Amino acid sequence: MQAPSEDNQPELILLTESPYDTPLPHKALQDPEGLSAIGGDLSSTRLIHLYSKGFFPWFSDPDPILWWHPEQRCVLTPEQFHFSKSLRKAIKKDNWHFSVNKAFETVIGHCSSLRADKEGTWISEDIKTAYSELHRLGYAHSIEIWQDDTLVGGFYGVAMGRMFFGESMFSLVPNASKIALRTFCELAQKCDIELIDCQVESEHLLSLGAELMQRESFVDILQQLIPNTHTNSELIKLGQKTEKWAI
Fold it and tell me: So what's the pLDDT on residue 1?
């Protein structure tokens, strides 16, 4: 039996001060699965660079920053969203509206507090600050779902090229986060977003049409969908509008 190549041995690297340090995805650890690097910072330059290569930060205080690149990536093609009969009925039943980037900091705050109440949260104050800066730069966006003037659900993530990297979602009433994702899938097609990264699989996401993609295929498609790290101009234009739209 041939011994495995040292080039393919998993390794955890320590990021330097350079925001362009790039771990090798195929060298991510197998236990814990997908852990690739440790350290660095949450500067916008580093986040934009590492997102474009498929990495994302996920850690809890007081742990150091951990960077991940799972072997199997949970992704959703917008047109493959599973629009169930029960969700159609829920939309027709109530007076739902949506907006884009109208309440970014409130959305990330809800995502943080709801997770803290359940199992603890990785959305720390540092994370909030970092993604708020990405929002200011036009990379991070929020989708908000309203009932009348009450924010009841939504999610936020990072858009780059023809990719959207989903980060976290919340619901204060049943179905709100599902409606947010369904609404965004419709917007995504208009904004030339071809793939939504859901990061780690869950039964909930799979039931909505997400599927698993091998790391090698995910890296290849990122190169196609993110030829450069430009913002998504159409999504930014939507976010500049102040009105809410009926669903």
Answer: 34
Q: Which residues of the chain have pLDDT under 50?
A: 1-5, 117, 120
DSSP 103-135: SHHHHHHHHHHHHHHHT--S--HHHHHHHHHHH
Which single residue is written with the structure tokens 């039996």?
1
Q: What is the pLDDT of residues 98-147, one digit of tens each?
A: 999 999 999 999 999 875 545 545 789 999 999 999 999 999 999 999 99
Phi, psi of 198 (to 5 degrees): -100, 5
Task: Quickly list DSSP for 17-80.
Answer: S-TT----GGG--BTTBTEEEEE----HHHHHHHHHTT-EE---TTSPPEEE--SEEEEE-GGG
The Cα-based distances of 108 to 24, 129, 145 in angstroms read 30, 10, 13
Q: Above pLDDT 90, what percent of the chain?
A: 84
CA 107 vs. chain centroid, Å, equals 13
What H or E segment, with its residue span, contains residue 220?
helix 215-225
**Distance (Å, rounded) from C-alpha 12 to C-alpha 63?**
15
pLDDT of residue 121: 59
The C-alpha angle 192, 132, 66, rounded to 5 degrees, equals 90
Q: Which of 210, 125, 48 is nearest to 116 (CA)?
A: 125
